């Protein structure tokens, strides 16, 4: 007899490098419907050194990556241990951790999320479910996005679920299949140019709102081949580093103008991505606080009803859903959809590490 109630911690570190998101969650299965309650939650910011290491890691040698993986696993375990102790969390079924993506090249059969070494279970003193992407890539999939199974099971009331994090991604039902894909970079680019102006990020989009849109750069961004490709498709930081940054920097624009132009680009691509621009749209992720971006999205999608949920759901939806992926893995149930990733079949992905 399987459990119907699970207490887990979902852990996520996104490409925007905001920090490590942790959420203690209770999942309950009632009448074949999953319900959730987010309990304690926290984002633990990275030190400047860790931000630099994680940003530079895409160019590391295999030996450097191995060392980084070891060090990051220790860092992550310490953060999770502190969260458990500080909140006096008892009787956990598992810690469900995404790790941090360093390399994502599914076309080459490669994806690397650090912090998923087997020793993490012993370091935390808890059962750990992690490394959710590798199996999918081995099955010919993109290894991303993984959140749509959670959109289907937890947020079925919305026609579209849009996440605005390091990248934007969307999921929706089409012909009884869940469809999902990455749309464009978001905070991986916006944060970079905000930092050049001395800010950690563009608070509520106020910087972008002051800039002037470069129509030439906007056209060139919108013409990038990725946007013409059919789904399934996904993005990694390599795309930003090798394609987006060089294109932007060719124009030698003031940072405010880059922010204005790229924010308009994000909104335009979101408008292009939705097959039927009607219904209701749930927006989560840090970009949900970017008022300027939200207004541009509404302009591009005048017939869509935009819903921005409570702060816990905005900020911790990915940690929430990786918690669910872990629970589904414990139950040996499907947690990755082939219709989303392009894998050969649906599957139950991830590694389970026990303390012993």
List strands and helices in order, with pairings.
Blueprint: E1 5-13, E2 20-30, E3 33-44, H1 48-56, H2 62-86, E4 94-105, E5 110-114, H3 120-124, E6 128-130, H4 134-138, H5 148-154, E7 160-164, E8 167-174, E9 177-185, H6 187-196, H7 206-210, H8 215-222, H9 237-250, H10 255-273, E10 279-284, H11 291-300, E11 304-307, H12 311-330, H13 338-341, E12 351-353
Parallel strand pairs: 1-4, 4-6, 7-10, 10-11
Antiparallel strand pairs: 1-2, 2-3, 4-5, 6-12, 7-8, 8-9
Helix pairs in contact: 6-10, 8-10, 10-11
Report on the architecture of this protein.
- The chain is of the alpha/beta class.
- The chain contains 13 helices and twelve strands.
- Strands 1, 2, 3, 4, 5, 6 and 12 form a seven-stranded mixed sheet that branches.
- A hairpin with a 4-residue loop joins strand 4 and strand 5.
- The longest helix has 25 residues, at 62-86.
- The mean pLDDT is 95.
